Amino acid sequence: MYKYAIARQLATKKLITNRGDNIGRLVDLMVNEVSGEIEALLVEVDPTSKVVKQLDVQGNLLEIPYKCVVAVSDVFVIDEKELLSKHDGF
User: Fold this and answer.
1) Does residue 35 fall inside a structural domain?
2) pLDDT of 53-85, one tens digit each?
3) DSSP states of 4-66 as a string?
4) Confidence grade of residue 3 (pLDDT, cut at 50, 70, 90)
5) Residue 90, domain member (yes or no)
6) CA spacing 20 to 30 A to 11: which of 27, 44, 53, 62?
7) What is the DSSP-derived secondary structure letter of residue 89?
8) How many domains does the chain divide into?
9) Pick from 57, 65, 59, 60: nearest CA to 30
10) In terms of pTM, does the model score above 0.90?
11) Are the C-beta atoms of residues 18 and 79 closer than 8 Å to each other?
């Protein structure tokens, strides 16, 4: 019950970069089944986002490695530089 409540609180949270650009909203979490650790965030992108345009996202979904997350409160804060460098490695 407790884990359900936490996951429910995360649903549809916005994601912004540490420079204030709105990336989109959380759709789903990708969790490692063995360790239980969050590996990535699945995000419905904001097509007007400067970062999303730089990433050249096809469609409306983007997978963001959890290592790019700087903070979680009312929103997920994503390290823009880290995200852009991780995307180059895909």
Assistant:
1) yes
2) 999 888 999 999 999 999 988 899 999 999 999
3) HHHHHHHTT-EEEETTS-EEEEEEEEEE-TTT--EEEEEEEE-TT-HHHHHHT--SSEEEEEG
4) very low
5) no
6) 53
7) T
8) 1
9) 65
10) no
11) yes
